[in-house]
Amino acid sequence: VAVQTAETPLRYGRLVVQNAYGTEAEDHLVPFLTQFVDNAGQWAINSQDSCTTLAAANFGFGNYLQQLAPDEMNSTHIDAGLSILTTNMGRGSLYLKKPSAGDSKYVGSVDVCADLGPDTPSAGPEPAPVCVAVSANLPWLQGKWSETKYDDDPTGRVNFGIYRGNDRIINWREIIR
Questions:
Q1: Got the DSSP string for 58-120?
Q2: Total of domains in the chain
Q3: 27 lies in a domain?
Q4: 76-93 pLDDT, tens digit each
Q5: Is the pTM of this model over 0.70?
């Protein structure tokens, strides 16, 4: 819902952490973006947002699957040169280094969450997991990800060990005889 005051437009919005995937031997960019509800009632990218700032410490990890474990993928794998992440036209990226050794031993996935508000477990049939990180104190960007209240931190899944194809292929044609 967009509201226009005398000089400042106010928007209802949320932060989205998107999924990422690729080989376990490469680093990944985990995209995040800010959205608002437009006049049609749909979520749209807030292209006017170039000031939402998150620190690397505001991101947490959990729900390790397959061969990934906390000692192979954690907050130390966030690029140290990017301690502050700012959106540009509503978009930003978290640069996540490959798992420890970067070999096939570390195939799997991990959930990456942005800790935006107070860490209180939510109630309900499927309570949202608590994002364990330093809170960014931006509770107005939390969303309704798993229940009825808009108090859940956004989470995206990063998969290591999924081949995404070659970027240099222009056209691929298979001939079956």
A1: GEEEEEEEET--TTTSSGGGB-TT-SEEE-BTTEEEEEEPPPTT-SGGG-EEEEEEE--S---
A2: 1
A3: yes
A4: 788 766 667 888 898 988
A5: yes
